[in-house]
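USER: Study each token:
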Amino acid sequence: MKKTLLILSVLFISLSNAQEIKQVPQISVNGEGKVKVVPDQATITVTVETKGNNAKDVKKQNDQQMEAVLKLIKKMNLNPADYKTQRVSLNPQYDYEKKKSNYNATQTIEILLRDLSKYDELMDGVVSQGINRIDNVVFQSSKLAEYQSEARKLAMKEAKLKATDYVSVLGQKIGRAMTISDNSQSYYPQPVYARMKSMEMSDAGAPRETLAAGEITITANVSVSFILE
């Protein structure tokens, strides 16, 4: 009986201590940091699409056009690691009215353009060599990790400022951080969907400039719990 009472006493003390630990005064806030930067590179996704009623001929035409596109890209001295074939397909399309099959062949290539001054030259070149579908253009920064770090620091500063503002009204101060949660979503640059354009020329005979990259925003979000002093 005495042993049972001793065990119950120890459990009661342990539970009391646990409750005291849980009752540490604290404040939880969110913080957001944003960094706006001018992009210095772009990922371009383009496709050669050919159609016809003979599968072999359609695929052959598609291969020839893509070969010309790749030759142009190599001529522009892009790093071989910066472009790759993304998708290849050859699909039958049955025409129920004419009761026969046609074929649709596509090859998609993704290009990382590290020098945006070559954008118009590249786009006009690939279109002239057989690209007939521009799927999307995504502007991004080569210093993404650096800007993400800056955004995280700004988010922490905002969280600390918020907490300080709230507790100052109560005559209290914030202490050390108890928990920090990163709520940032993976960074996905906003794609710019481009229409197929003809190779327009200016009055002087030079290609027109069609790129307006603007700015991209890199965002970080955190949740922080501070002890109250």
About this structure: The two ends are 44 Å apart (CA to CA). The mean pLDDT is 85. The first strand starts at residue 26 and ends at 37.
